[in-house]
Amino acid sequence: MLETRKLESSIAGTQILRGADLVLAPGRTVGLIGRNGAGKTTFMRSVMGLLRPDGGEILIDGTDMTREPAHTRAAMGVGYMPEDRRLIPEFTVEQNILLPLNALGEDIDRSRLDWIYELMPEIGRFADRRALALSGGQQKLVALGRALIVGRKLLLLDEPFEGVAPALAQRLIEVIGVLRGEGLSVLLSESDHVHSADLVDGLYVIERGEIEKKAAETA
User: Fold this and answer.
1) Is the pLDDT of residue 216 over 60?
2) Tell me, what CATH number does 116's domain have?
3) Ranges for the ABC transporter domain (predicted)?
4) Based on the structure, what is the number of domains in the chain?
5) Angle between helices 136-150 and 110-119 (to 10 degrees)
6) Coil, strand or helix: which one is 204?
7) What is the extent of the structural domain holding 85?
8) d(CA 165, CA 159)
9) Residue from 39, 79, 10 nearest 212 by CA
10) Could you give the count of Cα atoms lying within 13 Å of 124 in the half-sphere of its Cβ?
11) Distance CA 210, CA 8 (A)
């Protein structure tokens, strides 16, 4: 579902990714582990087309997306949950979730939205509440819902457990565990392996922009 080959990316002239190779098979959940500054977010942003790579390849569902603009990912069923959530504070929960569809000019898939509310009833209960009124953990759930409204095949979750209270971290673990049974391919990054240990089928470690596979995916 996702493969990067010798991916290289820079920020402000400083090279961050150094020949990063990663493979995520369909229906699998894979962890990308690394300390702060190791290159996790740069990798995610490069895959999503938010940062133009200096070299290498990005293949999504077998299609070369290396030079394609960011908005093309949503049409391919790819959802992205950034580390800092990036919600619009004045928008309601539902408006934030539907934002990718509105940006693309696509019709609202009510059945998909209802499925998200069933998956995470806690955000369904305050669908009309403005995002600025939510806690940080609740905002994480909304950001996940926004990723899911278009992410029918592949999800990129950047530090989903960062800065979240233990109870909400456990809730996120439960939700991501359910997604494994939905056939989604999931790449999640984390600074350590604490929360994702029981979620992932495979594990990669990133250090100074270089990625090393540490555990084979299960069959």
Assistant:
1) no
2) 3.40.50.300
3) 2-218
4) 1
5) 140
6) strand
7) 2-215
8) 14
9) 39
10) 11
11) 9
Long-range interactions of 194-200: CB distance < 8 A, separation 24+: 194/161, 195/161, 195/169, 196/31, 196/33, 196/161, 198/173, 199/29, 199/31, 199/173, 200/29, 200/30, 200/31
Specify whether the CB–CB gap between 97 and 139 falls below 8 A.
Answer: no
Tokens read off for 96: 């934030």
CA of residue 128 relative to chain centroid, distance: 24
Q: What percent of the chain has pLDDT over 90?
A: 73
Question: Over the stretch 83-139, which tens digit does the pLDDT of each residue have?
Answer: 888 899 999 999 999 999 988 888 888 999 999 999 999 999 999 999 999 888 889
Question: What would the two tokens of residue 213 be?
Answer: 């596979």
Q: Which of 109, 80, 99 is nearest to 186 (CA)?
A: 80
Q: Please, which residues have CB within 8 angstroms of residue 183's CB and are 6 or more apart in sequence?
A: 26, 27
Spatial CA neighbour of 119 closest among 91, 96, 142, 85: 142
CB 47 within 8 A of CB 156: yes
3-state secondary structure of 128: coil
Pairing of strands 154-158, 78-81: parallel
Of the chain, the end-to-end C-alpha distance in Å amounts to 15
Q: What CA–CA distance (Å, rounded) separates 179 from 148?
A: 10
